[in-house]
Design brief:
Distance between the termini: 30 Å
Number of strands: 0
Helix content: over 70%
Strand content: under 5%
Shape: globular
Largest sheet: none
């Protein structure tokens, strides 16, 4: 079953196929950046996958200075994670799977 952008995002960008992917196009580079960050910090990766809402917990973010710095340097990721943590983490997981699959094909 395909996952779609949250309803508010879909309505904001319209319903045509081309326009419905605007949100994904904007964040593709940010997904790559975030995937790279999570690859470097597997503990944070595991915790956010289990509970994406942690990203909205100031104590959690402050207790992980590398995450705090990343979010300060990547406001697009910060905004999307805060607004749609589960959806953004799902998109990152899909991105990670595709990257791994592409890496296996190259070998």
């Amino acid at each position: 079953m395909p996952h779609h952008a949250p309803k508010s995002l879909a309505s904001e960008y319209g319903t045509s196929r081309r326009r419905s992917f605007a949100w994904g196009d904007v964040t593709r580079g940010e997904l790559r950046n975030f995937d790279g960050f999570l690859d470097k910090y597997p503990e944070i990766d595991e915790q956010l996958r289990k509970n994406p809402g942690l990203i909205n917990d100031p104590k959690y973010v402050n207790d992980h200075p590398e995450l705090k710095e990343f979010l300060e340097n990547h406001p697009g990721v910060r905004q999307e994670l805060k607004e749609h943590p589960k959806y953004f983490m799902h998109r990152e997981k899909q991105f990670d799977r595709r990257e791994r699959a592409a890496g296996r094909r190259r070998k």
